[in-house]
Amino acid sequence: MGNTVQNNNAPENALKPRKSISPAFRSKLITCGMVVALFIIVEILDGTGNMSNLFSGLLVPICYYVIAALSLNLVVGILGELSLGHGGFMCVGAYASAFFTIATQDIITDVWIRFPLAFLVGGLTAAIFGILIGIPVLRLKGDYLAIVTLAFGEIIKNVVTALYVGIDGNGVHFSTTSTDALNLAEDGKVIIKGALGITGIPKSSNVIVGFVLVMITLIVCLNIIDSRTGRAIMSIRDNRIAAESIGINVTKHKLFVFAISAFFAGLAGTLYSHNLSGLTANTNNFGYNMSITILVIVVLGGIGSMRGSVIAAIILTALPEMLRGFSEYRMLIYAVVLIVMMIVNNNPTIKAKLSMIAPKVLIAKFRNRKKNNVQKGAEG
Q: What is the pTM of this model?
């Protein structure tokens, strides 16, 4: 009877099952918390003067490489398609945003109104190009898709290099020959100068803006992966025929991923262009090397792993500068580090051994050992 009375008087909350955090949500919290913690550490080091000018100058490049890697991972890791044209989308975003900034400099004088609009212009322009390119290109797959997207990136770079654009009271003028062919009025100005690119871009990018963009990109990518659309996209990656048989629109989902990826690549390009006073579309900036660098970050961080893309982007951007003291052996050491990272990331045995030293595993071992000691003490 006594036990029955106690059960009747028990609070209702004790009878309800505890709500546990899902593994997917816990993983999101860990990834976002890691980025926030890194940002706080960087701000503390920079604010106290414990960070060198070299590493301080790398903070914004790290941010746009993280954004580019996260967006490319949607295509390569989640959709399962190999794209080598990400540098082209960054180029579109960089030039479109820089053109908008210089063209509206006298009209929109407040930088914190003009700068966010520049991001929208760069991102949306890149997304439009992503859709236009994606409609014919996404019918291909595998090596064929990689070759076509690589060609797109090179075409964009060469077109921009040969383009002259100016603006005056009559509107925007285009030419592919010279600045004189623009026939601008006296109040006009040339913005895109062919192979000379764009000069006089306000340096509005900073670490805080980069951090905010990284967090937005990370949250959007993680939520897409964990959504119904993300599961449909992954089903297309795993088995396209089976996905079509259950009514999933393959073309629509592929275009969606391609457009979102291009949009964030455009944001990365905008952050890139507003971190420099001048912008040119040469091989090192937006050519084949840029696309390969971003793909290497995605592969080394783990295809499909957003957290891995963040970590790999930070390491691979900072590592060449950290190795400058080794002079001619710098790139050799860099290549060895790449090989080691690839082996570790793709070896199940090594990954299992490394997981044994993870904080979560160590905490569980400590708790089990403490529990065993308590039981032995009670028995004694």
A: 0.85
Measuring CA to CA, which residue among 145, 264, 155 is closest to residue 210? 264
Mean pLDDT in residue range 277-281:
85
Q: Please say if the pLDDT value at position 360 is more than 80.
A: no
What is the length of the chain? 380
Specify the residue for token string 């290549």. Answer: 335
The beta-carbon contacts of 169-172 under 8 Å, at least 24 apart in sequence, are: 172/103
Half-sphere exposure of 327 (CA within 13 A, CB side): 0
Who's near 288: CB < 8 A, 6+ residues apart? Answer: 84, 87, 150, 153, 154
- Cβ(84)–Cβ(146) under 8 Å? yes
Q: What is the pLDDT of residue 363?
A: 52
Task: For residue 14, count other CB atoms closer than 10 A to its CB.
Answer: 7
- Produce one character per residue of 125-161: b if its CB has 16 or more CB atoms within 10 Å, e if not: bbbbbbeebbeebbeeeeeebbebbbebbbebbeebb
Q: How many CB atoms lie within 10 A of CB 210?
A: 22
Instruction: Find all residues with CB under 8 Å of 166, minimum gap 6, and list them.
Output: 172, 173, 179, 182, 184, 188, 189, 190, 191, 192
DSSP letter (8 states) at residue 356: T
Percent of the chain with pLDDT over 90: 42
Max mean pLDDT among 50-54, 254-258, 324-328, 353-357 falls in 254-258
Per-residue pLDDT for 371 more than 70?
Answer: no
* Cβ–Cβ < 8 Å for 303, 77: yes
Residue 47's SS3 state is helix
Q: Does residue 299 register a pLDDT over 70? A: yes
